[in-house]
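Data deposition worksheet. Section B asks for the primary sequence of the deposited chain exactly as it was used as input, without tags or linkers unless they were present during the calculation. Section C holds the resulting structure in token form. Section D is free text for depositor observations; keep each observation to a single sentence. Incomplete worksheets are returned to the depositor.
Section A, Depositor: J.P.
Section B:
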Amino acid sequence: MKRIPRPGSLLLAAVLATTGVAANLAWAQIDTAKSSVTAVARQIGVPMEGKFKKFDANVDFDPAKLATSSAKVEIDVSSFEIADAETTKEVKGKDWFDAAKYPKAVFQSTSIKNGTPGKYEVSGKLTIKGKTQDIVIPATYRQDGAAQVFEGVLPIKRTAFNIGDGEWKDTSVVADDVQIKFRIVTAAKK
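Section C:
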């Protein structure tokens, strides 16, 4: 009998999208100690959260020059961790992230637009497990001393990216809805 992956496995996809939004920073150097990307999903109705330990971003963001701002985020899906070691291993396997075949999840922005004050809509393409979807990520932005801080939550459907293949396509155990939460902090280039 296979162990049921926790909703955190679905969160990886959410985290990738979130990271893409957060990566739209005026300064390109990410402060990894202050940044995070997590994914929250529900397994049998119980929320489970996992974290991506490794991600990188190429960011060029200026709130006064949105037309020329851009972001590319890459997440190492094998860096995903959830509380249970056995579930973490299962999530990296073929039915879930298939990290051996698809080691990275990638978000590439295509445009950044103003939303309500302090909020932005980052459009782009999210690729996970070989599947690409057009998405819009809602993100907040604020200046914090010498750093820029981007935060947000991106809802995605795990099945749109084949996260949870085979017997895991059934969403009655692990829900289809995943929330990718991100906090990206950048510092000025030196």
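Section D:
The helical segments are 8-22, 85-92.
The mean pLDDT is 82.
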